[in-house]
Design goal:
single chain, 164 residues, alpha+beta, Alpha-Beta Plaits, four-stranded antiparallel beta sheet, 6 helices, DUF3574 domain-containing protein
């Protein structure tokens, strides 16, 4: 009958660099620290399983707003964007949202690469309410483009477990 020792992967290393390489490979292959692998435990997987059980099923919608404009128009200012958030987005998502400023780039319809200050807006809502929030999200995207003469507002929807 095979034993745990028979099923163990045996690796011989001859230098400290090789040992470090093996440790990194084991870390990525197992999803946990080498000490957990060596002792047959994986606290990372255990913690992930416990976390997955928490919270409710939500969607996180991320919208990516650029501020660069075409035809020599000045960029959209922070004040203009925050007014858009207050007047248009907050009434549709009064329970909460997050706005982060960043630097983005994208290729426009002419093939030019545009680099600009951008904003990422994240809203979380119960997955069962996705059909009621989708029209609001699409309205926000269309209105921003129409107001500022832009081509698009990026959108990414991600399944999430959330607890508040």
């Amino acid at each position: 009958m095979p034993t745990d020792r028979d099923n163990m992967l045996q690796i011989r290393v001859s230098t400290p660099a090789a040992a470090a390489f093996v440790a990194v490979v084991l870390l990525f292959a197992t999803g946990g620290p080498v000490s957990e692998v060596a002792y047959g435990t994986n606290a990372t997987a255990s913690a992930q399983a416990q976390t997955a059980a928490r919270g409710s099923s939500y969607l996180a919608t991320h919208l990516y707003f650029g501020t660069g404009r075409h035809n020599g128009e000045p960029p959209i200012t922070d004040d203009q964007f925050m007014k858009f958030v207050a007047d248009v987005i907050t009434p549709r998502f009064p329970s909460g949202l997050t706005v982060q400023q960043g630097r983005g780039q994208w290729r426009d319809k002419t093939g030019s690469i545009n680099r600009e200050i951008s904003y990422e807006l994240t809203v979380l809502y119960p997955a069962r309410e996705a059909h009621t929030h989708d029209p609001d999200i699409e309205y926000i995207r269309r209105l921003y483009c129409a107001m500022y003469g832009l081509e698009s507002v990026g959108r990414a929807d991600v399944k999430a477990q959330a607890d508040f």
